[in-house]
Design brief:
Domain BD-FAE-like: 35-218
Strand order of the largest sheet: 1-2-4-3-5-6-7-8
Helix content: 25-40%
Order of helices and strands: EEEHEHHEHHEHHEHEH
Protein name: Acetyl esterase/lipase
CATH superfamily: Alpha/Beta hydrolase fold, catalytic domain
CATH class: Alpha Beta
Shape: globular
Keywords: Hydrolase
GO molecular function: hydrolase activity
Largest sheet: 8 strands, mixed
Length: 273
Amino acid sequence: MQYEIIPVQVKGSAPDTKFYAYILDDIKGAPCGSARPMVILCPGGGYGKTSDREAEPIAMKLLAMGYHVGILRYSVAPARFPAALLELAEVMKLVHENRKKWQVDINQIFVQGSSAGGHLAASLGVFWNQPFLYEKAGVAPEVLKPRGLILNYPVITSDKEYINEESFRNLLGAQYESEKEKVSVEKLVTPAMPPCFIWHTFTDEAVPVENVLLLTRALKKSGVSAELHVYSEGEHGLSLGDETTARADGSKICEPIQSWIDLLGIWLKGMTE
């Protein structure tokens, strides 16, 4: 496996923003030069940090499934919108530029995000064809469009009843009141949004389940394919929900949600065949 750490810098970036690329080697007997799909991970953390628990443990699962994986440690507060989104655009550009070296199927690039990272991934899904994004990245808009989005208990809405206010305040700073509606993803969905795999828990108190219900409704109205799984129990930020992503005190283990990674594997297989 190749492993590379690549600095990512745009206007407004934090100095330590990096992309971690995990590139699988060729399989013996596979066709020469065969390319693999890639999944880019955006860990959560309320736009105040990027969570370790939602980064490499998920990457290891996806690598075992046969996907190249990248982790974007994007800029967080005091960096403001659209810094993190521009960084994600740079990563999409970077993967395209390295497609031969890394043997990536550029028609099969997926973007995954957890919590606030889910908001970042979903934002790419609604903004990939907007000039403010692709012109600053210096690419054709199609370069920025993922094959699909994987959204784990994502922050989506600025609706006052269901908002995760911390994430939006960290993202927007002093522009919170004037700009929050402009980054409320469910209001921005069009038929151009990529297909989505989404999961959440019914009892999430930090990011209410209505975030994904509002998003799924918008996807349905726009004719965008989506697969939604809502588990009956589980707190926010569970990641894989097993021992590998548990906290030191034993919390964040939730057996009912552990099936999501297998369900994702089925969805990904269907998307890449």
